[in-house]
């Protein structure tokens, strides 16, 4: 069954007459989320844009033969996490979705990683609706992208899809990248969207990037939804559509390693049956020549740059030394490197800024791009009192235990005895009244991950990225040891 896409911009003047529900609508929803730029497989066994294209083409062709409609939805965070993503600022991933003939995507928190200008450019180049009803401009209240979209199928059925982005994006993304934006309440926005799409559609779908728990809340409290297709949590394969009830509530594992499928039948505005299936994007799936050709120019340009050797390391650089004895903490290396280049007393890095481990041996630019993908710059925060540092250390220790996040300090050590903290700077006790300079990344300098004390302090941005500083540090260590 062929699909005709009709995009409904809330600010526009396109209206539909009320849809009659006196029919059975059969729809297949194909979906994936949190690809994070992995257009090529993370490993040889699972993933890859070209394999996804082959499987999507096959299912669509089968559905046409069976007279069944198909919607291909992306649950956000299509960008950020690989070198090709950082190098082209998401352009390659949006071209992939264009060539895949995607029907819609929702903004995830990582869609803001490269700033608003690349996001707007990518959304403008998209040949499909980019959705988020709850991200609006502070000055006007108007949505940054489309709120919803209506899709018509050859059998006369309509599917309405609206997008919801995590409110927590304001705590997860670089604050300067969110300037002028407001993230509205997820639940109230979803309820409002239902009043807009329900009169125009037979099947109502929430396309979200809010996480499984919030997806279930939407399913419970937004009346009339037939499906919630989500992203954000990087679930395991065994968790696909877990705990779905009368309607499917589904998100796939991350990095393009799986494609989700929901076959749903709706009659008189209610789900009468649905089935779910998770496809592993493995070696049994041939790579689409069409997709390989479409993306070749991106891969070719980035490959030469990415294969440049930075240096050599004797120990793995990892995100967690506790789980990898004998390794070196990459966040600590970064904290030390930015402190030294800034000439500051203290260095600070967040583990959330490190996205992958690097094995011992030859280190390429590609490895470090993928480990430190966010483009954060080195910032010196001045006049931070010892008391403020003590408060940040105590608060970050609480965050570490509750949220599994972590601050990594260089030239600052602390130990805890009950509720008492012993904090030392360069081996000397922290002076509560003294003022210190802290070298950190621009995300933390702007108050990210709870580092709110930095926001109103004097700051100096060195204009060099954490990535570049780490590249120089590893290169210098390599050649000085030869």
Keywords:
2 domains; 5'-nucleotidase,  domain 2; 28% strand; Purple Acid Phosphatase, chain A, domain 2; alpha/beta; 26 strands; single chain; six-stranded mixed β-sheet; 482 residues
Give an overview of the whole structure.
The chain is an alpha/beta fold and 482 residues long. The chain has 2 domains: 3-301, Purple Acid Phosphatase, chain A, domain 2; 308-480, Alpha-Beta Complex (5'-nucleotidase,  domain 2), CATH 3.90.780. Helix content is 30%, strand content 28%. The protein is built from 13 helices and 26 strands. It has helices spanning 49-66, 83-88, 91-99, 116-125, 169-172, 186-197, 212-221, 289-306, 330-342, 365-371, 386-403, 442-445, 466-480; strands at 3-6, 24-32, 69-74, 104-106, 130-131, 135-137, 148-153, 158-165, 181-183, 203-209, 227-229, 249-250, 258-267, 270-280, 309-313, 317-318, 328-329, 346-350, 361-364, 377-385, 407-410, 412-417, 420-425, 428-429, 435-441, 459-465. The protein has a 6-stranded mixed sheet, covered by helices on one side. Strands 5-4-3-2-13-14 form a 6-stranded mixed sheet, covered by helices on one side. Helix 1 (49-66) links the parallel strand 2 (24-32) and strand 3 (69-74). Helix 3 (91-99) packs antiparallel against helix 8 (289-306) and helix 9 crosses helix 13. The longest helix is centred in the first third of the chain and has 18 residues, at 49-66. It is globular.
